[in-house]
Write a structure and sequence with these properties.
About 60% of the residues lie in helices and about 10% in strands. Helix 4 packs across helix 5. A hairpin with a 2-residue loop joins strand 2 and strand 3. The protein contains 6 helices and 3 strands; from the N terminus they run αααβααββα. It has about 120 residues and is mainly alpha-helical. It has a single domain, classed as Arc Repressor Mutant, subunit A. The protein has a 3-stranded antiparallel beta sheet.
Length: about 120
């Protein structure tokens, strides 16, 4: 049963490698924030919203129609996406339009799609 575990065959710490990685490793707070960011991507509805915004700037009504959801459900998800700084909004009269926050979000989505479509 011990053969199923991924462990070294013997104890041998590679001090140079450990020191090199340790010198560049971000702090725990930064890594936990990164984990929280990826948790936001872990919801299918939020991914669907992000992909709509990948294509166009839209309002809540447009998102609700495109995704077959209520405006209330869309608004809840948009609030989470805005808190994670993945989505931005702008007002035009009485209408609020939503878009991807920046090119980093676009790149994350593109690279994620490329990764899952690899052979």
């Amino acid at each position: 049963m011990a053969h199923d575990q991924e462990t070294c065959g013997y104890l041998c710490v590679h001090e140079d490698t450990v020191a090199q990685v340790q010198s560049t490793l971000p702090g725990n707070d930064t890594l936990f924030r990164l984990a929280d960011l990826f948790k936001v991507f872990g919801d299918g509805t939020r991914i669907r919203i992000l992909y709509v915004l990948f294509e166009a700037e839209v309002c809540v009504c447009d998102l609700a129609r495109l995704l077959g959801m209520t405006q209330s459900a869309i608004s809840h998800q948009l609030r989470l996406l805005k808190q994670a700084r993945l989505v931005k909004s702008r007002r035009d009269g009485k209408t609020i339009f939503y878009a991807l926050a920046d090119d980093h979000v676009r790149t994350l989505l593109q690279q994620g799609m490329e990764h899952i479509n690899e052979d």
